Structures are given as C-alpha cells and as structure tokens.
Amino acid sequence: MASIFKSSPRAKKYTILYFDHNGKRRKKTGTADKVVTERIAREIENRVALRREGIIDPKAEAYRDHEARPLAEHLDAYAAHLADKGRTRAHISLTVSRARRVVALFRGAPLAEIEAGNSATKELARAADRLMAWTAKARLSDLTVERVQAALATLREKGRSLATCNHHATAISGFAKWCHDTHRLREHPLRGVERFNAEEDRRHDRRTISLEELHRLIQAAELGRRHNRMTGPMRAICYRLAVATGLRFSEIGSITPGSFDWHAQTVTVTAGYTKNGEAATLPLPRDLAHDLAAYVASLPPGEPIFPFPRRGRGAEMLRVDLAAAGIPYRDAAGLVFDFHSLRCETATLADQAGISPRVVQRMMRHSTLELTGRYTRPRAVDIEAAASLLPSLKPSTPGTETAALTGTDSRPLPGPSSVLPATENATDDLAPKRNRLTGKLLPIEGARTQNPVG
C-alpha cells in the first residue's frame, strides 16, 4: 500500500512512496493538500494493480507519458545525450536549433520571425525566444514525414541552399531516431524523409591558390592589423598550421597549449572536436613547430591558443588578408577561397609533392580515397604544366614516319604475293604501293581510274 509523508517539517508538498508492478520502490511528489495527495496515491495503486495483472501494457503507458510531455523537453534530453557523447557545445546548439526550426516551420512560423536578422546579441535572443514560443506546444506525434518535408520545402522557397535544407533534415531525423531508440516513440516516424541533391545547387564551390599566392597571403597576414581579437602574426601562424595539418576551423579553435607534444613535434585534437569523433594526432613541420612553441610559451594553459571570434566563421577573418594580398575571395569562375580552402591546399600540395594517395588520405583523415580526391583541386595552369611534362612520343625520323602513316610514302612496301610485280621497263613511280595503315593498294600516280558509277 502506498504511503504519504512530508520529507521534512519544512517541506511544502507531500511525498508518495509506493511499489511498482515489478516490486521496485518508487517515490513521487504529491501536492501541498494531503487529501489530494491521498487521491493521487490511490490512483497510482490502481494503475500498479492493472499493470501487474497485465491489463495495462507498461510500454504503452510509457509511450503515452512521453507523448504528454512537450517536444521541447525531449529536445533538451537529446541535447544532454549529445553532450554525454562528447559533442561540442557549438555542435549541440546548431543541431538542436535546426531541429527546433523545422518544428516551428511546420507549425506555421514565418522563417523571418524565428531566424536572427544579424549577429547582434539582442537579435539572437529575440529569434531564440520566438523559436521557443513556436515549439512550446509541439508533441512527438507532430513528427511526420509530410510535415517535415513541407518545412524543408519552405526553407528552399525562402532561398536556403539545398545543402542547408539537408542539414536541417539530418538534424530532425537524428532526433526522431534517438526518440525511437530510447523508446519514446514506437517507431522512427521520419524514416522516409527525402534529401535534396545538393550538387544541383552548389553555391560555395571552393578553389585552391598557387604556392606563390599562398606565400603572399601569409605575408599579408603577418604584416596585417588586428582583426577582432586576432593579430596579424596570429593569423599568419594559424594559416600555416591549417595548411600543414589540414585541420578544420573548429578543430584549430579547440587547440590549447597542452595539445602539443614538442618532443615529438605533434599536435592532438580531442575526439569531441573532430568530425569523425576520433582523436587526431598530426605531425608538424620543424619550422612551424619551432614558431608555435615560441608563440604558445606565453599563453595561459587550458585556454585556446587562437582567440577566434565567438560568432562568425573563419572566412570573414581570411577575407581581410586576401584583400591585402590582392587575391579575390571569389574568382571569375565563381569559386571561393575560404578558411576550409586551406584544408584543400593541404591535399593539393601533398599531391603535387608526389605523396602517395593513401598517405594523403591518412593526412586528411578521410574514410575513402574518393573523398580525398574531392579535396585535391589542381588549377588549370597546373594541369597545363603537367601536360607539358608528359614524355614526347614524336618519331625519331618524322619525315619518313609521317609519310608512312598518311600512306604517301613513295617507297614500295614489301608485301605478300598479292602485290603486282613490276615489269622490267616499269619505273619505281609506276610500281604498286600499299597504305601502311589500311594495307590497301594506292592508285598509281598518272594513271586513269575508272569511275564505278559511269
């Protein structure tokens, strides 16, 4: 039988203590009214008895309880799950906000109302408040393929790229799958959500630059002014580190003085910050390791070595130095050079140095060689230069060989008995000849040919 009590003289509400259908002791908070709490306790006892007799399915009841909770609570639990897996705060925030945005859109929210118009703190807070308001009444049963597909269509109609739409689809589908895996939903409701072909709407194709331009970029950064909290020399050594290791912007942002092993001349990025979820230890060139050691020596331990801006991406920082170096951010072909292009430089320079594709794949930490090939982006002039380095196949006696290939060689060809023999009075010019390629007899110069038509 359930019992009710107050845990302490100062407690305002009563506590209900009971045993569930499995005989496990449970505790539930009641109300400040003892009579109402006793009524709740009796209701609990009735449900336990029905479960014990098999009249109520405990799983079905658990599904009903999860459905009664706001979807926002499940999203908070999903965020905690991602944190337990070691995901970064930025990754969790981006994933959950995308999932919330999809829910808000299929509930009728205007995109402009739930998205920040700029990066100002006040505007970000306003958009976050509106996003929470639009998703406050949503429930798990609202997650259907049709509604999510409609929300993705809205994103596309509002000018978002197909890649952005796919990122939102991944976020909400990942959340739904987790709800199914944790028995919050009977089945995965978004299994049929279709993604878009992002190749049809490429808006951010990257390019690489020449080695000379890369030197100019780093030199311009070295001599450049402070941008936000990054000085010119900071940016220069940051670019050098990005090209030497192929590390991504967020991975570099996680590096602290303790990430380096100066004896082995390596840098390690923890699993929580890498894309594949595995710790990465990468070697450093000797000159870069020497300069980094001098730079890091004066920095406080445990703090990131580069004070990257809290909002925005590395492209904004890089544009300052690109302009100073006279290198366009977007070229005539529409290809851009942003911070991630420095990672493309890593693969391209390694490929140009003749490093084995398998080794380049390991350097880039790619799962397949095909993916590494996407990062190897030679310029048109590099392809032309490579073509000029191919071995020449020109014949050693060009005049004779060319005439032979075209069938105009005047020398008689030694052939089988089918070749007509020359008479004693015949000259060399009247001797029958064969085309070296086709083997057919050539017409004798000066002789009349019969028109087969008439």
Feature tags:
disordered C terminus, 3-stranded antiparallel β-sheet, DNA recombination, mainly alpha, hpI Integrase, Chain A, DNA-binding, elongated, 454 residues, Site-specific tyrosine recombinase XerC
What is the second-level CATH architecture of the largest domain? Orthogonal Bundle
- Round the Cα radius of gyration to an integer and report it: 36 Å
Q: Into how many domains do the coordinates divide? A: 3
Write the CATH fold name of the largest domain: hpI Integrase, Chain A
On the 0 to 100 scale, the average pLDDT is: 83
CATH class of the largest domain: Mainly Alpha
Helix content: 40-55%
Per DSSP, what share of the residues sits in E-state strands of 2 or more residues? Answer: 5-15%
Number of helices: 18
Overall outline:
elongated
- Please name the fourth-level CATH homologous superfamily of the largest domain: Intergrase catalytic core
The major beta sheet can be summarized as:
3 strands, antiparallel
Runs in which pLDDT lies below 50 for 5 or more consecutive residues are: 415-427, 447-454
User: Helix and strand succession?
Assistant: EEEHHHHHHHHHHHEEEHHHHHHHEE
Cα distance spanning the termini:
119 Å
Oligomer: single chain
> What is the strand tally?
8
Sheet with the most strands: spatial strand order: 1-2-3
- Give the structural class: mainly alpha
Organism: Aquisphaera giovannonii
Pfam families: Phage_integrase (PF00589)
Biased composition (Polar residues): 394-409
InterPro entries: DNA_brk_join_enz, Integrase-like_cat_sf, Integrase_catalytic, Integrase_recombinase_N, Tyrosine_recombinase_XerCD
